[in-house]
Design goal:
The complex is a heterodimer of chains A (240) and B (377).
Chain A: H1 16-50, H2 52-63, E1 64-69, E2 76-77, E3 83-95, H3 102-112, E4 131-135, H4 139-148, E5 153-163, H5 168-174, E6 177-180, E7 183-186, H6 189-193, H7 195-198, E8 203-208, E9 221-224, E10 232-233
Parallel strand pairs in A: 2-10
Antiparallel strand pairs in A: 1-8, 2-3, 3-4, 3-5, 6-7, 8-9
Helix pairs in contact in A: 3-4
Chain B: H1 17-36, H2 45-66, H3 69-74, H4 76-93, E1 95-97, E2 100-106, E3 109-111, H5 113-116, H6 118-133, H7 143-159, H8 163-179, H9 184-204, H10 206-216, H11 227-239, H12 250-255, H13 264-297, H14 301-325, H15 343-361
Antiparallel strand pairs in B: 1-2, 2-3
Helix pairs in contact in B: 1-2, 1-13, 2-15, 4-6, 4-7, 6-7, 6-8, 6-14, 7-8, 8-14, 9-10, 11-13, 13-14, 14-15
Classes of the chains: A alpha+beta (240), B mainly alpha (377).
């Protein structure tokens, strides 16, 4: 059959039985797709709804870790309330970039923490020790850093014990602390004598680890807040 | 036949639901890709590139739709020949990603010929099968044209090797052959050949064998080749009824490989939950139903077969992707059309939509009388 408008030869329309056969077979194909669709919906519901608890339990076992939030040790104060020994949390930012696009990662970090130098610090790729790039960060700055460069930075948080300027005898009377499992423990002098009041109660956090063992930042949550130690007034002259 | 005037390249202002839905899904896909890659270096990089491809895809749809169907038929050698040639050229000039030499790369732009060739594969197969059956007294296509199509198109794809694309092409060819009147025994013969081919692949490629064994029992191989399958399950389970809030899909971002491309369904499931997923599944089936209805309403046999074939090729690819993510099929690198990251797949899918509209518009059924069985003069 020719179409006079464009001169092309067009395939003749199929006879009715051919069209009927086509439609019947096309409907069979559609039926197969519908069955496939139902199978997909059923399987989706199976994993997302029916087996959800089982899978989530397995995920929790494998990837959720609990950790201790070390308590802030209480201060030793003299009778006038002047601090003789006190604790401060020091947060350090460590730089250990990935091998892919470290410069771009550094620029993102530098945009989040503008006081960082524009030039990326040199890191020996063979060395395992990361480079300290900032100290004394606030929690907000840590969060900004982790959001900007999750894979390139590590946060190290330590509680440091600081002492007022004292004579050697007074300093010895105050005593020393030792770090045990991330917590400061008094081992001599007044630090040891008042350990029960100064120590405080550690908290508990929960976080999900990714496949590399890194924290997934948005999953970090406090399960039990830490209770800081009590401040103790002692009979020792001195001060800052 | 003269080229269409430039103004006809502009899409009609009349609302076209499938295209509007396709554009909407594509834009949603950009958001999903952004969420899935938010923690990677260069956040928004993939999403912005995909957005650019959405624009290209919209233009490709308009052009494909504007081309008269008779022009496709008349110049089939050009329309199909160039993509077909690219399938062979990529084997020598393409780059290898994840063990598959299937992309051309040029200054950061990637093109995957096996995706771009899908619309013209359907067109070429239909024309070959339909014209071959004219010789048959019962008007049935023979085994020979099917073998020509299968060998001609599947061999270069298999040499990449892209087993996912082979599956899509093969199933679509089976649908076309069946609907055009093919014999059941030939179809069964084809299934036998496919099973033999699959066995050969399992024997030839040990990594495929490991994937298949892990597919049969993922929990047993959870720390090895079944690991990816387990992450599919867990990302799905993490979604529950309503999913996480936006950008809180932590499990898929932390554990699921390729959450923006081959695993996008599982990634999406964690974010939007079962309630958010269900409309997408319905839309995919709706596309197949739409193609079926259009095809059954056509007067011209070739138009009908092309529409059905194009509907099937997108539906088959989508359902295979979903099946892989759900552990119903062994893992294979197949993207979810319009949603997964990948410009070639997106543009090819939009070309499919355009060709469907072209075939439907140019079918006499558009101006036929109410009774579709009345022969046209």
């Amino acid at each position: 059959m020719r179409d006079a408008s464009d001169g092309d030869q067009i395939a003749a329309p199929g006879p009715p039985d051919e069209r009927s056969r086509f439609r019947a077979r096309a409907t069979m194909v559609l039926f197969v797709f519908v069955l496939w669709f139902l199978l997909i919906v059923g399987r989706t519901a199976q994993f997302m709804l029916v087996r959800r608890a089982h899978e989530v339990n397995a995920m929790t076992r494998e990837s959720v870790v609990y950790g201790e939030i070390p308590p802030l040790r209480g201060s030793l104060l003299d009778r006038d309330g002047r601090p003789l020994a006190w604790s401060e949390r020091r947060i350090r930012l460590l730089w250990q970039p990935p091998t892919e696009d470290p410069e771009e990662l550094w620029h993102r970090l530098q945009a989040a923490l503008p006081w960082l130098p524009e030039e990326m610090p040199a890191v020996d790729p063979e060395a395992e020790t990361p480079v300290v790039v900032a100290e004394g960060l606030t929690p907000e700055q840590v969060l900004a850093a982790k959001r900007a460069a999750t894979f390139g930075v590590r946060v190290e948080s330590r509680i440091e014990r600081l002492y007022a300027a004292l004579s050697p005898a007074q300093r010895a009377r105050l005593g020393e602390v030792r770090r045990e499992g991330g917590q400061l423990v008094g081992v001599s002098g007044l630090e040891r004598d008042h350990e029960a009041l100064l120590a405080g109660q550690p908290g508990v956090y929960r976080v999900v680890l990714d496949k590399r063992g890194h924290w997934v930042p948005e999953t970090w949550q406090v399960i039990q807040p830490m209770r800081p130690g009590y401040n103790v007034h002692v009979a020792l002259a001195g001060g800052k | 036949m003269p080229l269409p005037p430039l103004r006809s390249l502009l899409p009609s202002l009349r609302p076209n639901f499938p295209v509007l839905a396709a554009l909407g899904i594509s834009l949603w896909g950009c958001m999903i890709i952004h969420s899935a890659t938010a923690n990677s270096v260069g956040a928004s990089h993939f999403a912005l590139r995909q957005l650019a491809w959405v624009v290209v895809g919209a233009i490709a749809f308009a052009v494909a739709r504007a081309i008269p169907f008779a022009l496709y038929r008349r110049h089939i050698l050009w329309f199909a020949g160039l993509p077909y040639l690219a399938l062979w050229l990529v084997l020598v000039g393409g780059i290898r990603i994840n063990g598959m030499r299937g992309w051309f790369a040029w200054h950061g732009l990637f093109c995957q010929p096996s995706e771009m060739a899908k619309p013209v594969f359907v067109l070429a197969s239909v024309l070959l099968l339909a014209r071959w059956r004219e010789r048959d007294p019962e008007k049935r296509p023979g085994i020979l044209p099917v073998a020509i199509c299968a060998l001609g198109w599947l061999v270069p794809v298999g040499l990449q090797p892209d087993f996912g694309a082979i599956l899509v092409y093969a199933l679509t060819l089976a649908v076309l052959y069946w609907c055009l009147g093919g014999r059941l025994r030939h179809l069964l013969l084809g299934i036998g050949v496919a099973i033999t081919g699959a066995a050969l692949v399992l024997w030839r490629y040990p990594y495929v064998q490991r994937r298949f064994v892990a597919f049969l029992d993922p929990e047993k191989y959870a720390s090895g080749s079944g690991w990816h399958l387990m992450q599919f399950r867990r990302s799905l389970a993490a979604g529950g009824w309503f999913g996480h809030s936006w950008e809180m899909g932590s499990w898929s971002r932390a554990y699921l490989p390729l959450g923006h491309s081959d695993s996008v369904f599982a990634s999406l499931a964690e974010q939007v939950g079962f309630v958010g997923l269900f409309p997408l599944l319905v839309l995919i089936l709706a596309w197949v139903v739409y193609a079926h209805r259009r095809a059954c309403a056509c007067q011209q046999a070739e138009n009908a077969a092309v529409i059905l074939g194009l509907g099937a090729i997108v539906g088959v690819q989508a359902f295979i992707h979903l099946s892989v993510n759900l552990g119903l099929l062994p893992p294979t690198g197949i993207t979810l059309p319009l949603v997964s990251y990948g410009g070639s797949s997106l543009v090819a899918t939009m070309v499919v939509f355009g060709m469907v509209e072209s075939a439907w518009r140019d079918d006499p059924a558009q101006s036929a009388p109410a009774n579709p069985d009345t022969p046209s003069s």
